[in-house]
User: Fold this.
Amino acid sequence: MAMLEVKDINVFYGLIHALRDVSFEVNEGEVVALIGANGAGKTTTLHTITGLLPSKGGTVTFEGKDITKKPGHEIVRLGMSHVPEGRRVFAGLTVRENLKMGAYTRPKSEVEASLADVYKRFPRLEERKNQPAGTLSGGEQQMLAMGRALMAKPRILLLDEPSMGLSPLFVGEVFKIIQEVSAAGTTVLLVEQNAKKALSIADRAYVLETGKIVKTGKASDLLNDDAIKKAYLGE
Amino acid sequence: MSFLNHLINGISLGSIYAIIALGYTMVYGIAKMLNFAHGDVIMVGGYMCFCATTYLGWPPIAGVLLAVVVCTVLGVVIERLAYKPLRMAPSLAVLITAIGVSYFLQNAALLIWGSSTKSFTSVVGGDPIQLFGGQLTITRVTIVTVLACVVIMVALTLFTGKSKMGTAMRAVSEDKGAAQLMGINVNTTISLTFAIGSGLAAIAGVLLCSAYPTLLPTTGSMPGIKAFTAAVFGGIGSIPGALLGGILLGVIEIFAKAYISTQLSDAIVFAVLIIVLLVKPDGLLGKHVSEKV
Ligand SMILES: Nc1ncnc2c1ncn2[C@@H]1O[C@H](COP(=O)(O)OP(=O)(O)OP(=O)(O)O)[C@@H](O)[C@H]1O
Ligand SMILES: [Mg+2]
Assistant:
């Protein structure tokens, strides 16, 4: 059985039918990419999984548990963290406070150890730990958003366009970290505009087009698929 | 010496405004709404303490506790019944609802306690303290009021600044969706904010009625509006801003009454507010969080 199973979810914004019978799955240990053009419904999909948006019909199952109707704040407790689009760090809180909020659901005794782990992975965050998050650069904020999500010790990490708006150097850094997190045993569902980069580190991928999954396969196969090359890789 | 006397009275009145302003500012910070009924919760607190001490013969401290408990519950119930269903509604709808709640509370009080003025017995007994051979008189209520304000400010600053729940509160006030992703229960956090604000309103109500011992169903509305003004004056959403705004407003009001005109004092208070907002639209200590996109 897959770790995360999304089955026939339908999401509406008023009259806009943003997701139509979207189904896919992520197996334990995989890096799965979800790619698609602007407005395809990638963010909507992640928001539905983590309870920020309700689905009309369909189910989301995580490690065998139906989480479709679970209140959003209970989902992180189950082992699923979501790095939202646009980072959404708490600008007025310090870097350290942001990270501690990431560990909100964890016992106090474990927080310091996780904080040390995150600082080891992101030394720059430790240098700036007492600085308000709003004063960090865009790249640093992305690191903070990822570090904050890791503070929950998730078994699956959902990332929404982590490379958005970053310089090539930072993009490389972000993808390197995703690979490290994956190698350390965390399953990853990665939403990306940067399809080439995403496909190069993913095991499998799904292609979303105007609210529908139109293609799926091994990431290496999709990288060589003519239609994908044309539409998403700019070749 | 009369200058010092007025200053002390102003700080005392301002302390009450500051305690009320905290409720406005915290609720605004979290729920992004103007809780117009906040002033009437003060009045309910006053009546509760009055009933406990005058009708039931309870000691003053028990009366204060009853007022705090009833108002805390009242604040949470108001939020659940009246505001929570409107979480996604336009802010005008929420404002109108809040005005409705305010009228509801005033009229409920009118029904229960009637329209005649109740004379409130101060919860702080004892003779005024004479200083400088009787030239300066300070009532004990004044001292208790200022002390209460200081204690509340320090406690609340520590709570929001240092505790886990307080940090979560600040996170919710910035971004409810992201806070939810952290596992923070947004509804509980909003309830807690209303609970704290309303509990403080009860304390303010008791102190207000102890200093100015007349109690009517409309007792809370003018101090409510002034405290709201104080919150805006200091910078809405800011806790030190509520303190600064409250104290300044109290001092300006008392000085205006003493040296300019009793009738014009409120007009002067609001004129100062308008001038401050023209120069500093975010209020004196208004938040300016730098954000990079
Ligand atoms: N709050 C909203 N209200 C109305 N429509 C919305 C809302 N959010 C998204 N939509 C619509 O739903 C569709 C899917 O949006 P979504 O944000 O999921 O796309 P996306 O694939 O993440 O795009 P991008 O790559 O630009 O982030 C779009 O047509 C969008 O206009
Ligand atoms: Mg998106």
In short: Residues 42 and 205 of chain B are 4 Å apart (CA to CA).
